[in-house]
Amino acid sequence: MNKYIVIILMMILCVLPSFSHEQAMRTVSYPGGKCYMYRIMLKDKYGTPFSLERPQKYLSERSIERRERQNIAIDSTDLPISPIYISEIEDRGIKIVSHSKWNNSLLVRSQNKNLLEGLSKLTFVKRIIKAWTSPDSVTINYKADHVRDEFNPWDSISGHKYGAAEEQIRMLNGIQLHEAGYKGRGMSIAVLDGGFMNANTIPCIKDINILGTRDFVYPKSEKFYGEQEHGTAVLSIMGARHPYIYIGTAPAASFWLLRCEDFQSESTAEEDYWAEAVEFADSVGVDVINSSLGYQNFDDESSSHTYEELNGITALISRTASMVAGKGMVLINSAGNDGMGTWKKINFPADAKDIITVGAVSPNGINAPFSSIGPTQDGRVKPDVMALGSPAQVISGRGTIISDMGTSFSAPIVAGLVACLWQALRDKTALQIIDIVRKSGNNYKTPNNIFGYGIPDFWKAYNYGINLNN
């Protein structure tokens, strides 16, 4: 049988256990009728009551401390958007859906397209971009609330403290980092995803230290923990702590759960949601961000991204991602799963500068054929590093351990260990941590655009880091 057919069949079989006959779907007309969203790019921040001298008004103490530790200055991009401009837009009967102070932009919504397009005439508006048009119908998912109260007897792996997660952590030499006492304690990780189904009720996940949740999708979910299970699986890879069953890569870390993916449609508006989520993570003092999300092709094909845009600065989501390290955080993003498709390349924001883009390998250390490849349009090596994702072991939204495929799961394996590494090397900057992780890769001397810098060795990274002078 053709090897690619075998791989596809494996992917299908791995996904099947995460679905249930208890789930049902129903298509309904779009609530409220036809409407539109536009991204409004503003010229300046005139009239903002905030100042660079008093960042406590818009950044938490933890966020300010993180910047001071890395000698990062607060600048104009940190200032909130001018409330004068916000009021003038709202006074026209237009709803503001999201803000991005780093990009000085607003995402606005109305049923009146002409009203939205008329905003281009305002003196403080640089330009407007159509971001979303409501579909004729949407699919409503009905999910059962039932989860397993305990694991199956066969889920326990005798003699293996890390249980089902051992192989994916051992591949990156993360167990030695844990044994040295670095399990992510004191570190804060933001998980950007589309849903965290039952993460508040699954026994081995609900005990994770969750600092808070936020929903940036419009409209916000009526039931935050009733959406997709993708984020639950991602969270489990990092935070689960159930000895001999499943231990994650950062079991002592704290987490923010941030929903910014709208599974009902694909549009550039999701880039605005993502940007606002990242800025929120910055404001509350997050150290590490895991984003197992990527965009390229949208429902409105005219807004889909092109190869020429893979430069880390053109797409709003990538431009925002390229700013993350400059704010003192490390962003880990999945490379994408288009390696066997027509696109093949990394998605957005995996093309961003100064982030760690993660591809997927199989247990033998060979790149998974579905894992998206580089380089970026401006010639940078991508992905940066690789981790197990073909398959990875995760905990599903039903509370069961399953094998699942994708760079979505290789990314959090790396993200959790980055948090542990940074706990150990607290004097290092975000840019230094990124560089150290790359240099620990087994392909660092001969990087390429399929394997990147290779599979990182986090114990090697630790030893390199403690001998590195600032």
Features:
470 residues; Rossmann fold; disordered N terminus; Alpha-Beta Plaits; 13 helices; globular; single chain; alpha/beta; four-stranded antiparallel sheet
Can you walk through the features of this model?
The protein has 470 residues and is α/β, with parallel strands linked by helices. It has 2 domains: 345 residues, 3-Layer(aba) Sandwich (Rossmann fold); 98 residues, Alpha-Beta Plaits, CATH 3.30.70. Helices cover 25% and strands 19% of the residues. It is built from 13 helices and 17 strands. The strands form 5 sheets. The chain has a 7-stranded parallel sheet with strand order 8-11-7-12-13-14-15, with helices on both faces. β9 and β10 form a beta hairpin. The chain is globular. The protein starts with a helix and ends with a helix. The N terminus is likely disordered.
Indicate the topology.
Elements: H1 3-15, E1 24-29, E2 36-42, H2 61-69, H3 83-90, E3 95-100, E4 105-110, H4 113-117, E5 125-133, E6 137-142, H5 166-170, H6 174-179, E7 188-193, H7 203-206, E8 209-215, H8 230-239, E9 241-242, E10 246-247, E11 254-259, H9 269-283, E12 288-291, H10 316-321, E13 330-334, E14 356-361, E15 385-388, E16 392-395, E17 401-404, H11 407-424, H12 430-439, H13 458-466
Helix pairs in contact: 8-11, 11-13, 12-13
